[in-house]
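Tokens for chain A. Residues wanted.
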């Protein structure tokens, strides 16, 4: 079991969280978006080894936040509310 730090509720069991995607993967804007750009947005990921920045949602409180974690060690480096509030 791993504890994830929710910026709103504090440390909680990982089963209370749902992965929301890579932070910084901006959705294309507009109705005239080429198909290859939509495909890149939906399916292409960098899948880095090491530190990554991700969007997560705490299903208990329903809040979305950004979490920095190491994909090799699974260590959580930091978490922050989308507004900037920090948690350990």
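Reply:
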């Amino acid at each position: 079991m791993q504890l994830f730090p929710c910026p709103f509720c504090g440390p909680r069991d990982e089963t209370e969280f749902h992965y929301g995607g890579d932070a910084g993967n901006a959705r294309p804007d507009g109705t005239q978006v080429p198909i290859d750009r939509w495909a890149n947005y939906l399916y292409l990921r960098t899948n880095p080894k090491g530190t990554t920045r991700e969007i997560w949602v705490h299903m208990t409180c329903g809040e979305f936040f950004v979490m920095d974690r190491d994909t090799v060690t699974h260590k959580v480096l930091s978490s922050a509310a989308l507004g900037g509030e920090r948690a350990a």
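The CA atoms of residues 3 and 13 lie 5 Å apart. The chain has one domain: 3-26+36-87.
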